[in-house]
Amino acid sequence: MFLHKFYCFAVLASMVNPIIAADGPPDPFANPPSAAFAGQTAAPQASQSNISTDLVLSGLQGSRALVSLPDNNILVAEGSGTIQVIHSNGAITGPIGGMPPLRAGEGRILMDIAADANFAQTRRLFFAYEAETPAGVEQPIQQVASGILSRDMTRFESIQVLGNYPGRRLASTADGKLFITTTGYLEQRPEVMDLTTYTGKVLRINADGSIPEDNPYQGRANIKPEIYAIGHRDQDGIIIHPDTSELWSIEHGPFGGDELNVVRAGLDYGWPYITYGKNYDGTEIGPSQWDGVTQPLYYWFPSLAPSGLALIQQETFPDWQGSLLVGSLSPPQGRFLIRLVMDGERVVAEEHLLVELDRRVRDIAETPDGSIYVLLDSENNTDAGRVFPGEVLKLIPR
Ligand SMILES: [Ca+2]
């Protein structure tokens, strides 16, 4: 019944869609959406922080993820599948051997890595990646696996494939669950609300690959039992909030409509019917609010392509404790580091940092002793004069 409402709406929307000016393409910045509540977008500017940076590691290609470990070491993952270690004393080692069965070749093969929330006891890491395929199979096989990092940090051991999941980002919880986000772009529209697909969802499994009995759709017919929440486009940064143990995420909108969400069991987050985003030509996709659809805590319009998410817990930088740090990848609206000043679930101020670097910020991590590392993406666009290696910077208070 509920889903029917959306399909009906989609048909309606496609009939009344969109008003295109006769004298040219529509202005994509015209008619920005109206927020559902005060403070849901365009928060006031925070007072400017004084920071500088140290270059810690360079020469990366296809930067993907930074992972903070309990001993203050940092893992750095590239899309090719290489994982290096930045030790707390500044030494760099790697790449770590014994990776899961990644496919050979070019492009983004390793999507994400995440440390077990109980890493100090388990030394377990989780991987989302494209696997090598049997001869004759052309479609990539996307998998999530776990492995145990050797004490000397040179090898992963006891690799266990947990399932064929199209994982984008991973997050582990102290009670032994693993969250997996998946993507669901506009051309996959019918699949995103379809509970028989993994498209555009948050999935939740146990660390051993079994399925939690308390997942919200368990027991219903014709569903994927791993599904935890629906209606997502592309959540490219997720964390477990240390105060609430809930899943927080940032999500790429299309043209506008990037979101910050708390993802709760069994809720619908709206995409691709309810969104603050528009099509890339500025035409409407759908309304931004609808009964029964969860509103984002915060959204950006136009898009700045948020990637990576970290909650700052230490006090290395004045007033940063409790802030969220988010990367941004998208010219012209953003190639910088975003700090969101939080009051509970409300964004009360926003600060843009490292703007002068003009680099794509892919991920962020804070160590338990309060060092903050930022992962910059590589770029290979010679036409635009933008050729950079991926790099890791350490933020320094100034
Ligand atoms: Ca949404």
Itemize the secondary structure elements and their pairings.
Layout: H1 2-16, E1 51-60, E2 63-68, E3 74-78, E4 83-86, E5 92-93, E6 110-115, H2 119-122, E7 124-131, E8 141-149, E9 156-163, E10 169-172, E11 177-181, H3 189-192, E12 201-206, E13 227-230, E14 237-240, E15 247-251, E16 258-263, E17 298-300, E18 306-311, E19 324-328, E20 337-343, E21 346-353, E22 361-366, E23 372-376, E24 379-381, E25 386-388, E26 390-397
Calcium ion binds at residues 259, 269-271, 296.
Task: Tell me what the structure shows.
- The chain is mainly beta and 398 residues long.
- It has one domain: 6 Propeller (Neuraminidase).
- The protein is built from three helices and 26 strands.
- The chain has a four-stranded antiparallel β-sheet, with no helix packed on it. A four-stranded antiparallel β-sheet has the order 2-3-4-5, with no helix packed on it.
- The structure holds calcium ion.
- The site of calcium ion (CA) has 5 residues, from loops.
Largest sheet: 4 strands, antiparallel
**Strands, total number:** 26
User: Poorly predicted ranges (pLDDT <50, ≥5 residues)?
Assistant: 1-21
Strand order of the largest sheet: 1-26-23-22
**CATH topology heading:** Neuraminidase
Q: Oligomeric state of the chains?
A: single chain
User: What is the number of helices?
Assistant: 3
Instruction: Give the strand content.
Output: 35-45%
Termini Cα gap: 57 Å
Q: Estimate nothing, just give the exact number of structural domains.
A: 1
- Please state the CA-atom Rg, rounded to the nearest Å: 21 Å
What would the principal axes of the Cα set say about the shape?
globular
What is the highest CATH level, the class? Mainly Beta
Which ligands, by name, code or SMILES, are bound?
calcium ion
Output the structural class. mainly beta
Secondary-structure element pattern, one letter each: HEEEEEEHEEEEEHEEEEEEEEEEEEEEE
Which percent bin holds the helix content?
Answer: under 10%
CATH superfamily: TolB, C-terminal domain
